[in-house]
Design a protein that fits this description.
The chain has 181 residues and is mainly β. The chain has one domain: Immunoglobulin-like, CATH 2.60.40. It is built from 1 helix and 12 strands, in the order H-E-E-E-E-E-E-E-E-E-E-E-E. The strands form 3 sheets. Strands 1, 3, 4, 6, 8, 9, 10 and 11 form an 8-stranded antiparallel β-sheet that branches. Strands 2-5 form a two-stranded antiparallel ribbon. A two-stranded antiparallel ribbon has the order 7-12. The chain is elongated and about 105 Å long. The N and C termini lie far apart (77 Å). The relative contact order is 0.22.
């Protein structure tokens, strides 16, 4: 009987080590959804038009993203003369990407416009463009790509003219970033 007990103990020990040696298994799943990348293209530049201001008085010119034209503050006013006449209008951009998706537009807080004086003996100081605002055709300030994955948006802003600003041509570049929300 003692032999049977030893044999039973050895068999149980072998069975226990076999049970502990078996690994546990499970199946994991990985998925991914790939969507079209967003792209943005400039279609038209923002233009504050041809402007002037009263002597000794500064002013502002504001272009709305909702419509062409501008509003004038302080001593600033529109001026149109010959071939140098331009009409104020917002910048226009086209966006494409995954249909029926929201996206976010990032604009800078301010932009510095660099001027080239039209008279050789004067210097044009830099001007600040601020208050950049946008309006999307697919969602106002909450942009949305349509069923074809397309949208457009406009950007407006305000340029500040200091008193006694000499005649000059100004130019500024600003970055527009779009990303899915």
């Amino acid at each position: 009987m003692r032999g049977a007990l030893i044999l039973l103990t050895a068999w149980l020990a072998a069975l226990a080590s076999t049970a502990q040696a078996r690994p546990a298994q499970a199946v994991g799943v990985a998925t991914a959804t790939v969507i079209r990348p967003l792209s943005v293209v400039a279609k038209a530049d923002m233009d504050f038009g041809t402007v002037t201001h009263l002597p000794g008085t500064g002013g502002t010119v504001t272009v709305s993203p909702a419509a062409s034209g501008a509003s004038y503050g302080g001593g600033a006013s529109a001026l149109c003369s010959g071939v140098s006449c331009t009409t104020a209008h917002p910048a226009q951009f086209a966006v494409s990407g995954e249909p029926q998706r929201h996206y976010v537009i990032q604009l800078p807080a301010t932009v510095l416009a660099i001027g080239t004086a039209t008279s050789p003996d004067t210097t044009a100081p830099p001007l600040t463009i601020s208050g950049l605002t946008l309006r999307s055709s697919g969602g106002g300030s909450n942009p949305w790509l349509d069923a074809a994955g397309q949208d457009e948006f406009a950007v407006g802003g305000t340029i500040t003219l200091p008193a006694d600003l000499p005649p000059a041509h100004y130019h500024a570049s600003f970055a527009v970033m779009v990303s899915y929300s």
